[in-house]
Amino acid sequence: MPTGKVKFFDEAKGFGFIASDEGDEVFLHASALPEGTSSIRPGARVEFSVFSGKRGAQAMSLRVLEAPVSLAKAGRKPADEMAVVVEDLIRLLDSLTSANRFNYPEASKGRKIAALLRKVADELDA
C-alpha cells in the first residue's frame, strides 16, 4: 500500500491532498478517512489505497500511521512558567474592574493587553 503525508485537508469542503512518498499528489476525499473521523491534520503520515478517479489518483481506505508533531507544541513554555504568566494576566484583567464594574483601559494599554491575551491563547492552543 502506498504511503505519504497529508499536504492539507479542508474539513468544510471535505477534501484535501496527500503527497505520496513516490512523489505523486493524491486527491483525498472525506469519505476515505477512517470511520468516525471528519478531518485530518496536515503532516500526518498515512497509508492508503489508490484508484484512478475522474481527475487522477484518488485515495481510499486511508489509515493514519503517525500523527504530525506540532512545532508550536514542541516549543511552548513549561507548565510552571505558564502558571506565572496566567496569574499575572488574571491580576492585569482584575485591574480593569472596580466595584464589579468594567472600565475600558486607554488605547495603548488596551492594545498591550490584547496582544498578551493573543500570546497566551497561542500557547494554550498549541
Summarize the SSE layout with pairings.
Elements: E1 3-10, E2 15-20, E3 25-29, E4 45-53, E5 56-66, H1 71-74, H2 79-94, E6 97-98, E7 101-102, H3 107-125
Antiparallel strand pairs: 1-2, 1-4, 2-3, 4-5, 6-7
What's a concise summary of this model?
The chain is α+β, with helices and mostly antiparallel strands and 126 residues long.
Describe what this molecule looks like in 3D.
- It is a single chain.
- This protein is of the alpha+beta class and 126 residues long.
- The chain folds into 2 domains: 3-66, OB fold (Dihydrolipoamide Acetyltransferase, E2P); 71-125.
- It is built from 3 helices and 7 strands; from the N terminus they run βββββααββα.
- A 5-stranded antiparallel beta sheet has the order 3-2-1-4-5, with no helix packed on it. A two-stranded antiparallel ribbon has the order 6-7.
- Strand 6 (97-98) and strand 7 form a beta hairpin.
- Helix 2 (79-94) packs antiparallel against helix 3.
- The protein is elongated and about 65 Å long.
- The two termini are 32 Å apart.
- The model has no long low-confidence stretch (mean pLDDT 87).
In the CATH hierarchy, the third-tier topology of the largest domain is known as: OB fold (Dihydrolipoamide Acetyltransferase, E2P)
Q: Determine and state the CATH class of the largest domain.
A: Mainly Beta
- Please bin the fraction of helical residues: 25-40%
The CATH architecture classification of the largest domain is Beta Barrel
Give the strand line-up of the largest sheet.
Answer: 3-2-1-4-5
Portion in beta strands: 25-35%
Mean pLDDT across all amino acids: 87
According to DSSP, the number of beta strands is: 7
> Count the helices. How many?
3
Query: How many angstroms does the end-to-end distance come to?
Result: 32 Å
CATH superfamily of the largest domain: Nucleic acid-binding proteins
